[in-house]
Amino acid sequence: MVERHGLWIMLECGQCKLQFAHPMRSPDGFYDKVFYAGTSLEEIRHLDARAMAGRAKRLGWPVFEFALEWMREEFVGRPVVLDIGCGRGAFLAMASLEGIDAFGTDIAVEPVQVLRSKGFRVHCGSHDTIPEDWPDPDVVTAFEVLEHVPDPLGFLRSIHEKFPQARLLLSTPSPERWSLKVGLREDWDYPPNHLTRWSEASLEVVLRRAGYARVDFVFPEVCGLDVYWIVVGHTLHKLRLRERGKGSVDGSDTGAARVLSEMLGKARWIRGLYFFGAAVSNRLLGPIALYFNRKGWCLSSMLALAQ
User: 3-306: which CATH architecture?
Assistant: First the structure.
């Protein structure tokens, strides 16, 4: 046993070093209740699709930027992309600026409804149940999805079987990320949110067992924006979880946590300050990111390219 966290224990495979939760499940409706409640959708609810795409481009997660650059280099023309677990649609918005035909899936109802209202093509459900008239993708992306899935091998195998010709580009929290090196394991890297923690070795094993013949890895460098998102996100998450408790079964907010969430959701000036900080983070936090890179530490996420 690696550690205990509320109702879960974390175990580790002695061969590939995969860490996994027992039991391997999240409560029903967990993501609707926690990650898409209150403030989480407010950042895009009041934006139209063009404004949303512009903000995503300015504040884009570095992994998304890498994915788009890789697609520009690997494909003649614009590939068709299926983004599994598209969440609040940041990658779909960034892809739209590139003229890429991108569509997404997510299991959380509310973000799907919001994205559809803005003109994005999004399916509520799994990739196995997407509409028959959608085109077969050239690329399947799954950013920060695998660690939430109770059956990772089955999930990856189903992607390969349904889209055998598509390349798979996925990201997971990196075991070499700078936050771990400074002794910070983020609150979101525990069950019931994250059910698995992947190493390069364990991720290659599961991708090859799923049917992929070639697997390559990328460990991007740290940037100021990554430092900002982790530190601020971790702080806000700690505040919101203060009364929820780490062992919560249903993930629901109670008491002061719910009040805080509602206050942040209604106060646009707070959100504005939050995004202003992100906009200037690369300049202000750049020296810290440079220091981390010189020590050989990496971005918060690693990428795997499989085909």
Answer: 3-Layer(aba) Sandwich (3.40)
